[in-house]
Write a sequence for this structure.
């Protein structure tokens, strides 16, 4: 019998600019789909695209072991677009790594 209650979660350890260290949990499939949709980056970005990247990053980081909420406002005030894109790239690489590894 496969027992789904025996799953051992893996975490994406992230240190924020304010020094706070978060253990980000893997997203639920519904949230992952939304984050992927929101973070779809184009060459010619609009203000709406930037807002979507900030929202996707906030959603991803706020799902953490510490129950620490990373708001879109905090991200806007403390990070630039290059930092958020780099963080999302690393986050999605981590999610892909989890999906492709045996549990």
């Amino acid at each position: 019998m496969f027992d789904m209650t025996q799953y051992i979660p893996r975490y994406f350890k992230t240190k924020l600019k304010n020094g706070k260290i978060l253990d980000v949990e893997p997203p639920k499939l519904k949230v992952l789909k939304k984050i992927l949709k929101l973070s779809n980056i184009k060459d010619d970005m609009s203000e709406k695209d930037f807002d979507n990247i900030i929202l996707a990053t906030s959603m991803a980081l706020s799902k953490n072991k510490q129950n620490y909420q990373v708001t879109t406002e905090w991200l806007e005030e403390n990070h630039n677009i290059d930092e958020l894109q780099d963080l999302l790239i690393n986050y999605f690489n981590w999610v892909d790594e989890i999906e492709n590894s045996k549990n």
The two ends are 15 Å apart (CA to CA). DSSP finds four helices and two strands in the chain. The chain has one domain: 17-100. The first helix runs from residue 29 to 38.
